[in-house]
Design goal:
The protein has 9 helices and 11 strands.
C-alpha cells in the first residue's frame, strides 16, 4: 500500500506544496477503506470533511425520485471528493460510493480549516480545484441538456484523452454500464453510438482500450452533433 506522504505528494490538491506543508497535512489524515459498492456518504449528510482517493475509484451520483442513479463523475486516485461542502459549511449535495475496492484519506473539516489558515499556496490550490469542479459540472450540464448521445460520447472520449495525456489512445477504466449512466443514457444506446463511431472510422475499440482515429471529426461531433460528409 502506498505511504500517506507519497499519496499526498502525487495528488492534484497537494502536489507541489513545500515539504513542511505536506508534513503538517500528513498528521491530520485518517485512512478509510471501502469495498466495492460501499457507501462513503449520502446526499444531505453533514459535510464534516472531505476525501482524497488514494487507490480505487469512486462514483459521485444523484438519485431520481424513482431511485435511478445519475452519475455526476467518476473520481480516481489522486483526486478529491466532498471538498465543496466542506468549504461552504453545508451538507453533501450528492452520494458517493466505491465502485472498486478503494483506499481513501479523510480530512476533518475543522482540522483542515485550522491547518490552512495563513497558507496561501495551499489556499490557491483549493481555489483551483473548486474552479475545475465548477467547470466540469458546467460541461456536464451542457452535455446532458443540449447534446444528443453521440455528441456526449465524443465529448467524453476527448476529455479522457486530455485527462490521461495519452494522445489518441485511451483506457476506459469504468464499465460500459457505468459509462452509459455517466452519459445519461442506456447500455443499448451507448452500444449503438460506439458502433456508429467505429463504422465511421472515428474510433477503434479493443477491450477497454479505445483509439481515437480522427480527433478532428470527434471534436466536430462533440460540438455540432454531427460530422461533415
Amino acid at each position: 500500500m502506498k505511504k500517506t506522504r507519497e499519496i499526498l505528494i502525487r495528488s492534484q490538491l497537494f502536489g507541489g506544496l513545500p515539504e513542511e506543508h505536506i508534513t503538517e497535512i500528513e498528521k491530520i489524515t485518517v485512512d478509510k477503506h471501502y469495498g466495492k459498492g460501499e457507501i462513503i456518504f449520502c446526499d444531505g449528510d453533514d459535510g464534516t470533511g472531505f476525501y482524497l482517493v488514494a487507490t480505487g475509484s469512486v462514483s459521485v451520483y444523484k438519485l431520481s425520485p424513482e431511485g435511478r442513479e445519475q452519475t455526476l463523475h467518476i473520481v480516481r486516485g489522486g483526486d478529491t471528493i466532498g471538498a465543496v461542502p466542506v468549504f461552504s459549511g453545508k451538507s453533501f449535495p450528492a452520494n458517493a460510493k466505491a465502485i472498486s475496492k478503494s483506499h481513501l484519506l479523510f480530512f476533518a473539516r475543522n482540522k483542515f480549516i485550522q491547518l490552512i489558515s495563513g497558507k496561501p499556496d495551499l489556499t490557491m490550490n483549493i481555489l483551483a480545484l473548486l474552479s475545475a469542479r465548477l467547470r466540469e459540472f458546467t460541461i456536464q450540464v451542457e452535455n446532458l441538456s443540449l447534446k444528443e448521445i453521440p455528441g456526449r460520447l465524443a465529448s467524453y472520449l476527448i476529455y479522457l484523452a486530455r485527462e490521461q495525456g495519452s494522445g489518441d489512445s485511451i483506457q476506459l477504466n469504468i464499465s460500459k454500464a457505468q459509462l452509459a449512466n455517466l452519459l445519461g443514457t442506456g447500455p443499448e444506446s451507448l452500444s449503438r453510438a460506439l458502433g456508429h463511431m467505429k463504422t465511421k472510422q472515428l474510433i477503434a475499440e479493443k477491450g477497454n482500450s479505445i483509439r481515437l482515429l480522427n480527433q478532428g471529426q470527434l471534436q466536430e461531433l462533440a460540438e455540432r452533433g454531427r460530422v461533415s460528409a
